[in-house]
Amino acid sequence: MEITLASLPNELLLQICRSLASSTDLSNFRLVCRLFGEIGLPVLGKRVTFALLPESINRLRDISSDPFFRRHTSTIVCLMNVFYPYSNFRTWKHSMTRPLILGHYRPEIAGLSEDDWTESMLHYNALLDAQDEAFKAVGTSQDIQIACRRFINLQNLVIQDARGFRPDHLRSNQAYRFLRQRHGTLAQCSVLPVYDFSAFPHKIALPGAYLLSSLLGATTESQLKTLQVDALALEVFEEEDEVHSQIRKSTRNLHMLKLCILAGSEDVEKERADRILSQNRLKNLLCSAPHLEKLEVQIKGAFFGTGIYYAHSAYILPREYTWHQIRRLRFSQVEFLTSGFLDFLGFHGHTLEDFGLRDCAIVGPPPIQGLQPQRCFWSDILIPLTTTYSLETLSLSGWFTVPSFFEQDQNQETRTLRAMNMEHDRVKDVTLCVGEVIEMVVCSKAFSSFLQGEVGRRNGLAMDTDRSVIEGLAVEIKEGIIRDLMDREPVRPSESVPEAVPTRYSSYLNLFTQLESGSL
């Protein structure tokens, strides 16, 4: 009797996959095993990945009909691929011929005739038609919802922006395969969902929201443990519609929530974005998840005339003890009120292990009439993190700003933004960027032990008899390092970043890095 792969039980196929020696063998095996075609390699048999194309949605439906996957699948990942609908052939060709890196030659498109380009354009239009069909199906068809409802142990939903991913999730589309083979990449044609409202109908411009609504409709309120959405339009929080209601119900038992909220578009201005967030629907959504252990909120957007958009922390952070188990917090493009954030830390700091900020701003309290505005600095937040709480990880990256001030030029008054770039500024005599040094000062137990020992040695103090004095001096040095690095003179973002940032305590940092690297 002839035995084929198709005749083997899925449990046995799963064991075969786990025993394969290399990723190449596994990739070849997946090509001949249809059911395993959409299963992610790291968690084979537990994660199903599909793209917003009809062929991939059909594959999702097929997989959900299989008893093995209905029982074992715990994670569904949707990769949102959005290809730009160019208005004419010339614009599309210009985009396709533009190098991803300036000056980079692309041999795969050299020598293509006009007939070749015309043929490619026909395939690109076919890809757009398939994309349009899938987007419309998200809003009108229940195929995705019915398929997801079959996975009885579904616990994790991930909706990712597919730009930058390997193209495996699109290989089922014939037009895409043709274009990949001829042109090598379509990265220039991929756009972030939501941003370009002029190019897409309004509903299709929000695939993150409507896809999320469809997926959440397939789950019970207590089922989900993890929810990640990479492209969620700010308009979702404008009113209490079905999408917002479903999201809020799904958060009640979440352990991990990651939201990337897109605030910049032709339809949204800064004042409107502030007004939407001030209604506190986003905040209420986050506060309805009391079991959160990991939370990440990214705001993306910039507006003409005002630059990067910062969401005020009062529209995000709870004012009372809400997240009893929170261990990891990450924020991007959020503006923190110093006193409000310190109050938040007072409630949640004792469980916090991992804290990260990227491209954030800080503001002080409103000025009192007749008095100068109270100055505020990032050290106002980072020093309490050093002296009061025991973080294991502190991540600071991107640009950090403090309130703008006015500087008198020769002829006119200009508005200068205080900002520093955590990723590139170097500390004097130390090959570490500012963010790395701050993390070391706040979190590193090795640095704390070194600093106390070095302080005792330099001051002739003994740990067994002068512990409290040594610890106090070490804390003062930590606070001084943070103030030197975070409260320095302003730089203009348009200027070149300084090569070195001075600090009074470079000798401690330099000696510690030498000891860590073994150069001493």
UniProtKB/TrEMBL annotation:
Residues 6-39 form the F-box domain. It holds the Pfam family F-box-like. InterPro entries: F-box_dom. This is F-box domain-containing protein. The lineage of its organism: Eukaryota, Fungi, Dikarya, Ascomycota, Pezizomycotina.
